[in-house]
From TrEMBL:
Top-level taxonomy: Bacteria, Pseudomonadati, Pseudomonadota, Betaproteobacteria, Burkholderiales
Key words of the record: Membrane, Transmembrane, Transmembrane helix
The protein's name: Exopolysaccharide biosynthesis protein
Ranges in a coiled coil: none
Transmembrane segments: 49-72, 120-138, 167-188
Alphabetical list of Pfam families matching this protein: ExoD
InterPro entries: ExoD
Top-rank taxon, per record: Bacteria
Length: 198
């Protein structure tokens, strides 16, 4: 889906929300079947902030999303999740923020190398999302940054069908895995030395 079209669609949906709580099904419908990609962006973005506990909580949501990417390849939300309601103000704010975010990203994205960012991408994007969720969950100093950037790039790549951007997301994920493994190895060695195990 073209980013400008999606941004306008979300902006219109934000202004047309009915009074009262809004079901998640309505928000998913506003995305025109692209709710999984937007959910990647929404759950990953707060992990960039150095707020204690945010990553631990949202990593669980990302792990659940990884399972949905693998097991639920449908445009509609799973029925149980579709019946969850959000306050109208929060729903409208989320749609408006996503619309502005996609507007800014539009000049940097375009449909290219689409097989890497199409429907079949879920077969490898699901395990990648789960791996990044685990890294976000681990208490590694500044360890949330690269995994969150990787998942945000992947979400935008899915929306824009941008295979080049998806390759960038995979590259950032590889860097996240490498840096986290290095930190954990150094931490293990330091702990072993302190305890006299080395």
């Amino acid at each position: 889906m073209h980013m400008n079209h999606l941004a306008n669609r979300l902006r219109d949906a934000a202004g047309a929300l009915p009074p009262g709580p809004v079901p998640l099904a309505a928000l998913a419908e506003a995305h025109g079947g692209a709710w999984q990609a937007s959910l990647l962006v929404l759950l990953s973005a707060p992990c960039l902030l150095p707020i204690p506990g945010v990553g631990s909580v949202l990593s669980l949501g990302l792990a659940l999303l990884a399972a949905m990417l693998w097991l639920w390849p449908h445009e509609a939300l799973p029925p149980r999740l579709a019946r969850v309601h959000l306050p109208r103000e929060g729903a409208a704010r989320s749609l408006d923020l996503l619309a502005r975010f996609y507007d800014r990203l539009q000049p940097m994205t375009r449909s290219r190398w689409t097989p890497l960012a199409g429907r079949t991408a879920r077969w490898w994007l699901a395990p990648l999302t789960l791996a990044m969720a685990v890294l976000i969950f681990l208490p590694i100093p500044f360890g949330n940054l690269l995994p969150a950037v990787s998942l945000m790039l992947a979400g935008v790549a899915l929306l824009a069908r941008d295979g080049v951007l998806m390759l960038g997301a995979v590259g950032v994920a590889a860097g996240a895995l490498a840096s986290s493994a290095t930190f954990l190895a150094l931490g293990w060695q330091a702990g072993a030395a302190l305890l006299g195990w080395a």
